[in-house]
Write a structure and sequence with these properties.
Length: about 325
């Protein structure tokens, strides 16, 4: 059943939606390996750990999403998309969103202004050519910007980005002290598979928790979903096919999907659809960071429950 219209959410999502869910996959492939350590360009076996994502893990993920009849987002470094054009074809054929995630996987703040601008132009051109449509959204490698990233994105017609760490709900970004209609979509490291699954020898990486047990991952992500669901905030999960695309880990993702599907008012969508839904109900004048209820400028509410379903007073 759908969430009741009487329940007030942080964002008054359309169509009785209580919690939009975005599964956002980053098929970084070899570009990530080389960005981490330039010597990885000369380590073919190390590269195969990352190319497993588009070659094998992605197929498992797409099959799973077909079974559940859900859509998601796939944000690519353009160099990796060039190396794996067949994977773009699979994604487009299933109706998912393609977005920009760098030319290489170098962070924008590593680049001078001219190189960053050139990289943005290259990724737009390449992904448009491979996918058949111009990407509307952007996610920066490493979730980091340079001083000029936002201006460069706006100049190239990007409408939103999904790499902002300071909120739980989307908001509109100010650029040069001017309000814009550019939507910031939040992420956080709790809802990313890399800190849980990623181990590397070149360079040495563990993030303190490699190879987490499926039960731990499910508990972490499902409890975070439950909390965001109560507030009517979106659930934006970042996943990498070379990590989550492994057999047992896809099963964990399936278990999470079933957990979310069991709640009323859950809508699986692409990041572009999330941005469109937000724009449909919140104006740039309302949607500023830190507003608990951007539509009304209300304060954080007291939560009560009716038959186990959260409502706000």
């Amino acid at each position: 059943m759908a969430a009741s219209k009487e329940f007030e959410r942080r964002v008054p999502w359309p169509d009785d939606i209580q919690c939009p869910v975005v599964l956002n996959f980053h098929p970084d492939a070899e570009a990530l390996a080389v960005a981490l350590d330039k010597e990885n360009a000369n380590r073919p076996n190390t590269q195969t750990m990352y190319s497993y994502g588009p070659r094998v893990g992605l197929q498992r993920i797409l099959h799973m999403m077909r079974n559940y009849k859900i859509k998601g987002s796939f944000y690519w470094p353009a160099k990796s998309a060039q190396r794996h054009p067949y994977a773009i074809e699979w994604i487009v054929a299933d109706g998912h969103e393609i977005g920009c995630h760098g030319f290489t996987h170098d962070w924008p703040n590593w680049l001078d202004a001219a190189t960053e601008a050139k990289h943005l132009d290259q990724q737009v051109e390449i992904l448009t050519q491979l996918s058949g449509s111009r990407p509307r959204g952007y996610i920066s490698p490493g979730w980091e910007y340079s001083a000029q990233t936002l201006k460069l994105l706006r100049e190239r017609g990007f409408e939103f980005s999904g790499d902002w760490l300071g909120e739980d709900i989307p908001y509109y970004v100010e650029i040069d002290d001017k309000q814009t209609d550019f939507v910031a979509i939040p992420v956080n490291w709790t809802l990313d598979d890399a800190p849980l699954y990623w181990f590397s020898l070149f360079p040495p990486l563990s993030y303190g928790a490699p190879y987490s047990a499926p039960s731990r991952v499910f508990e972490l992500w499902s409890s975070e979903f439950d909390a965001l669901y109560e507030e009517g905030a979106p659930f934006h999960l970042t996943l990498h096919p070379f990590l989550t695309g492994r057999g047992a880990r896809v099963k964990t993702l399936e278990k999470l999907i079933e957990h979310m599907m069991a709640r009323p008012g859950v809508k699986f969508c692409t990041m572009a659809e999330l941005a469109d839904m937000y724009k449909a109900v919140i104006t740039p004048e309302q949607g500023k960071p830190g507003k608990w209820f951007p539509a009304t400028s209300g304060e954080a509410p007291q939560i009560t429950r009716i038959d186990g379903v959260p409502t706000y007073r």
